[in-house]
Amino acid sequence: QQQVKQSPQSLIVQKGGISIINCAYENTAFDYFPWYQQFPGKGPALLIAIRPDVSEKKEGRFTISFNKSAKQFSLHIMDSQPGDSATYFCAASGGGSNYKLTFGKGTLLTVNP
Amino acid sequence: ETGVTQTPRHLVMGMTNKKSLKCEQHLGHNAMYWYKQSAKKPLELMFVYNFKEQTENNSVPSRFSPECPNSSHLFLHLHTLQPEDSALYLCASSQVARDSSYEQYFGPGTRLTVT
User: Fold this and answer.
1) pLDDT tens, per residue, chain B with 115 residues
2) How far is A53 from chain B (nearest CA, A)?
3) Rounded to a whole number, what is the distance in Å from the CA of B16 to chain A's nearest CA?
4) Residue A96: what pLDDT?
5) B80: exposed, middle or buried (C-beta count within 10 Å: 0-12, 13-18, 19+)?
6) Could you count the other beta carbons within 10 Å of the beta carbon of residue A9?
7) Distance between CA atoms of B6 and B93, rounded to whole angstroms?
8) CA of A45, closest CA in chain B: separation in Å?
9) A40 cis-preceded (ω within 30 degrees of 0)
10) Which whole-number Å values give the CA distances from A26 to A13, A44, A51, A89, B59, in the listed order?
11) Contacts with B43 from chain A: Cβ below 8 Å
């Protein structure tokens, strides 16, 4: 019930391409879905987040798509750049444990120049 | 200082040593967290403090002992660790309200190596 499944585990994209990372959750009480970006040697940093009252949120080159009925959400990185190379984590929280984030296992994104 | 800070950034300790990790948040948040991040594993939540009260202990071995003296500071006391405890230890903070979830802000982590 508390799992968040993330795929793919790793992704290689050419510069200028679109990177897509997918997550699926089971707990229908989740109401907050953030994405974190982590560079080597750094802590995760909040990238973008969405709540289930909208199906899409866009910030610059980063877009979250949310499908409540399918219990899935995804991160799209448009015009991917080598500087986007990092590990990306999806997460979810809500219900009786709104203070606690459940994380996916992460996706290592490599953007080739 | 801004955000969430952690000290030390790197720590090498023997299995019989006692050391402490420190975390400080400058965001006025009311909740603080300790996570363990190992290679090829998801972030593992270890402890949660809401308003200085421990509300979560995810079956963490007693060789890890948290302390939260106030809402801005969090410590993780370490003793008689095992080599498998080597990992990146991350601190985070957030503002928790009754009916809403809010983002967590992470520190840079302490890279711990147990020899």
Assistant:
1) 579 999 999 999 988 889 999 999 999 998 999 999 998 777 889 999 887 676 677 789 999 999 999 989 999 999 999 999 999 999 999 988 766 667 899 999 999 999 9
2) 13
3) 26
4) 66
5) middle
6) 10
7) 12
8) 7
9) no
10) 29, 23, 16, 17, 23
11) 44, 89, 103
pLDDT at A97: 65
pLDDT band of residue A101 (cuts 50, 70, 90) is confident
Q: How far is the C-alpha of A107 from the C-alpha of A4, rounded, in Å? A: 13
Rounded to an integer, what distance in angstroms lies between the CA atom of residue A5 and that of residue B97? 26
Contact B42 A94 (CB under 8 A): no
Q: What is the pLDDT of residue B97?
A: 74
DSSP SS3 for A38: strand
Best of B43, B49, B68, B102 to mutate (most A CBs within 10 Å, chain A): B43
* Residue showing tokens 């002992």: B65
Q: Is A108 on the interface with B (CB under 8 A)?
A: no
Query: What distance in Å separates the CA atoms of residue A27 and residue A16, rounded to the nearest whole number?
Result: 35
Query: Considering only CB atoms, which chain B residues are within 8 Å of A46?
Result: 103-105
Tokens of B45: 């939540």
Q: Which of A3, A93, A100 should be substituted to probe chain B, the one whose Cβ sees the most B Cβ atoms within 10 Å?
A: A100
Residue position matching structure tokens 């998801």: B42
